[in-house]
Design a protein that fits this description.
The chain is 70% helix and 0% strand. The chain has helices spanning 5-13, 17-20, 24-34, 38-44, 49-70, 78-91, 96-107, 112-129, 137-158, 166-191, 193-196, 200-206. It is globular. The two termini are 25 Å apart.
C-alpha cells in the first residue's frame, strides 16, 4: 500500500464512486477508509471529491503516456497512431462506472470548465507524445479536434457492450476518418486558385496566432 496520502485517498474513493458518485459521501468514506487525517485530506483536495476526480483523470493520462511509450507503433500511419493513443487512454480505465460518474460530475455547470480543461489536457498530452511541433493556429485546432474525437468516443464507449469494445474502436476510426476528410477539404480550398484568394485574409490573420510559450495553469494544454 502506498504511503502517499494522495494515492491512498484516490485508491480508497474508487470503491465508493460507483455507488455514491464523486460526492461528499464518497470523499468522507475515502478519508475514513484510508486513515488519512481529515485536515490533511482537505488540504490536499480542497474541493473534496471534485479534486479527486480531477486527480483520477490525470492519473489516467499518465497511464496512457506510459502505454504510448511502450508501444513502438512501427509502420503505423499517423492517423493510426492517434487512434492507438486514444485507445490507450480509454483502456487505462479499470472501471467504466467511475468514468460514467465523472462525466455526470463534469457535465454540471459548476464543474464544466474543469471537465473541458481535462479533455483538452488529454488531447494535448497525445499530440505532444506523438511529436507534434506546431507552434501556430494548428496547435489549437489539432487539440480542439482531438478533444471532440476523444470525448465523443468515451461517450460511445460508456454504452458499448460489444465484445472487446470492438464497436467503440470502429466508431473511433470513423471519427478520425471524418477529421481526415475535413483536413483534405481545407488543403483543397487553400490550393484551389478560385478559393485561395478568398482565404488570403483569414489565413493572414490566423498566421499571427501562436502556440503558448509559457505554461501557466490557465492556458489550454497545461497539464499541471
Amino acid at each position: 500500500m502506498s504511503d502517499d496520502p494522495q494515492t491512498q485517498l484516490l485508491d480508497a474513493i474508487l470503491m465508493h464512486v460507483p455507488f455514491d458518485g464523486w460526492s461528499q459521501a464518497s470523499f468522507d468514506a475515502a478519508v475514513q477508509d484510508s486513515d488519512v487525517d481529515p485536515i490533511v485530506a482537505r488540504g490536499l483536495f480542497p474541493r473534496g471529491a471534485v479534486d479527486l476526480a480531477v486527480a483520477y483523470h490525470k492519473a489516467g493520462d499518465a497511464e496512457m503516456l506510459r502505454r504510448i511509450d511502450a508501444d513502438p507503433m512501427e509502420g503505423y500511419r499517423f492517423r493510426d497512431k492517434v487512434a492507438a493513443a486514444v485507445r490507450h487512454r480509454i483502456e487505462a480505465v479499470d472501471d467504466r462506472e467511475v468514468v460514467r460518474r465523472g462525466t455526470t460530475l463534469f457535465a454540471l455547470p459548476t464543474h464544466a470548465a474543469d471537465g473541458a480543461k481535462l479533455i483538452w489536457g488529454t488531447a494535448d498530452a497525445i499530440w505532444t507524445a506523438l511529436g507534434d511541433t506546431s507552434d501556430d493556429v494548428n496547435w489549437y485546432t489539432k487539440r480542439a479536434t482531438l478533444s471532440g474525437v476523444y470525448s465523443s468516443t468515451v461517450l460511445f464507449w460508456l454504452g458499448d457492450d460489444s465484445p472487446d469494445h470492438s464497436a467503440t474502436w470502429e466508431f473511433l476510426d470513423r471519427r478520425i476518418e471524418d477529421v481526415m476528410r475535413f483536413e483534405k477539404f481545407k488543403a483543397a480550398v487553400n490550393s484551389n486558385p478560385l478559393t485561395k484568394g478568398l482565404m488570403a485574409f483569414p489565413n493572414a490573420v490566423l498566421s499571427r496566432v501562436k502556440a503558448p510559450k509559457t505554461d501557466p495553469s490557465d492556458l489550454p494544454g497545461h497539464l499541471g
